[in-house]
Amino acid sequence: MTAVAPGRTASRLGPERDRFRLTKLPTMAVIGAGGVATIVLWVRDTIYVTGLGGWLTNAGRITGLLAGYLIVVLLALMARVPALERGVGTDQLARWHSSLGRYVVSLSVAHTLLIIWGYAVTARAGLWPQTWTLLTSYTDVLMATVSLGLLVLIGIVSARAARRRLRYETWHLLHFYTYLAIALAFSHQFATGADFVTNKPARYWWSAMYVLVGALLLWFRLIQPLINAARLQLRVVAVQPESADAVSIWISGHNLDRLAAEPGQFFRWRFLTRQLWWAANPYSLSAPPRDDLLRITVKGLGEHSRSLRELAPGTRVIAEGPYGAFTAASRRLHKVLLIAGGVGITPIRALYESIPAYPGELTLLYRTGKASDVLFAQELQDIATQRRSRLEFVTGPRGGRRRSDPMEARRLKRMVPDLASHDVYLCGPPGLTEYLRGQLRAAGVPARQIHFESFAF
Amino acid sequence: MRRVLLAITGTIAGLVALLSFKSHSPIATGAGLPSAGLPSAGAGSSAPPSTGGSPTTSAPAGTSKAPAGRSPAPASSARSSAAATQTDYTGQAIQTQYGTVQVKVTMTGKKIDNVSFVQLTAFDQRSQYINSQAAPLLLQQTLSAQSAQIDGVSGATYTSIGYVQSLQSALDQAK
């Protein structure tokens, strides 16, 4: 149970480029094309715009249409579509989701205010009477208003400052109200949306878009995990301490090769015990996957990860995934530099064993605060010997006013000669990842050669 | 912070560009709009050659109170000479939430012989469709009621209200 049994995996570890991946640029192009199509709806329907009222009302219509479109995009980004997960990467999708989410909330607020103001100007009514008229005599607008309230609430809750004061689990649960908000806002689009009322094809396409994304969500977030759970029969085999506060969990199952998991990817794990079944938390594979065995390594950071220490062998597990674009597929050059920060070692550990590289062309820098935080010391040494690759542990406190940081650009360049011609894989806490990206750029590594994954939610 | 500013200015710039692209006024109306007249009204019912306003009254779609086609003859004198003279009265252009409505009536004394639209514009396709359905009904109702006290068309509330206002302002001129 201690060694990692590279056996079967090592032979078929070519970067799996044949699998379909939707990368950043094509994804952005698709989203953009949808946005343009949405604007075209308005352009085709609108005959002319006149007066302050007309300008405001129409600005309200455009912002409303865009919000209605982008909120579906938000869902699609979170539907865990494998092609997107592999191509764009889960953490990048989450970043898009959060900035786009803020934009959608702003658009919805702008839409509401502009419509009220525009209608009030045209009808020569006051803002409050006009609001009342809209709420009471326009079909489904009251529901849409409740939806707006929910969206704003979720937006506030998700804002970074607020989230630190909330438990992840609470925040996650609140997020489910987005579905309710979207459902509530849907009917007013067709009932009062001038662009849809007379345009039957537009209604069909618009509905089709909502249905499609709904189906994606249902399939990839619910049905497929359930099918996988039935097929794979995952169970905890052993729980093994790795350090004072980290444990490895070994999980067995049938025909795990069907999952097509790649080293560097992660799953969302749901351990079916009375306390843990409702939470699906993301943990990276800390060893290349085998046909019958997977390993994850968890550091006791939150409530959930601490209670994993008490898992009994035989506990059933449901795994959603694999997710993440942090794999050998994004590799471009011969030389590879892996940088792990703290518990970010887990996916790096899997890559260190498996990423194709000639002897001498693979380097691992493992950054920890204290020497006792180092995980897998023996395993890493074994891999280094076997693959004839470099392994450097960098310990000690961060840089401050007096001393320079051990990972600053100048030192990185000294540690890794020819740094700029490496593909760099970077995994660690958000602060470190951000810092290192800056230092690597400063050391002359082009952005496209820096692959990173940040495990902030 | 820079990205937030970029998103805001980008969105506003995009909106302004789109809106100004659509803000040129459409071809003014007049011809081709529905009109309705009483068959008994002697001279040509649909487009009577009359003294006052002609379809050239392309009043700006604003809130102008301009009574475009005021008859040169005082209304009181027309009453005595009975059905002899027909006079056109053009109502105010009324701006509604969905477009502009302006009505013209042709009257013989106190009788409405003919009523037609000077302007009936719509901001969007749906409103245009609603207008096209409602317009003939409104005209018919006016001829039947011989006043501005009409039911209006349900489903075209705003157009109906604008129509009645414009019609009333035209009839007020005839008093």
What can you tell me about this protein's structure?
The complex is a heterodimer of chains A (457) and B (175). Chain A has 457 residues and is of the alpha/beta class. Chain A folds into 3 domains: 24-225; 233-323, Translation factors (Elongation Factor Tu (Ef-tu), domain 3, Beta Barrel), CATH 2.40.30.10; 329-452, Rossmann fold, CATH 3.40.50. Chain A is 51% helix and 15% strand. Chain A has 17 helices and 11 strands. Chain A has helices at residues 7-11, 24-45, 51-77, 82-87, 90-123, 127-137, 141-158, 160-164, 168-175, 177-192, 194-197, 200-232, 303-307, 345-354, 377-387, 409-415, 430-442, and strands spanning 235-241, 246-252, 266-271, 281-284, 293-299, 317-323, 335-341, 362-368, 390-395, 422-428, 450-454. Chain A has a 5-stranded parallel β-sheet, with helices on both faces. Chain A has a 3-stranded antiparallel β-sheet with strand order 1-2-5, with no helix packed on it. A 3-stranded antiparallel β-sheet of chain A has the order 4-3-6. Chain A is elongated and about 80 Å long. With 175 residues, chain B is of the alpha+beta class. Chain B has helices spanning 2-21, 75-80, 125-145, 157-174; strands spanning 35-37, 86-90, 94-96, 99-108, 111-122. In chain B, strands 1, 2, 3, 4 and 5 form a 5-stranded antiparallel β-sheet that branches. In chain B, 39% of the residues are buried. Residues 41-83 of chain B have low confidence and may be disordered. At the A-B interface, helix 2, helix 3, helix 5 and helix 11 of A face helix 1 and helix 3 of B.
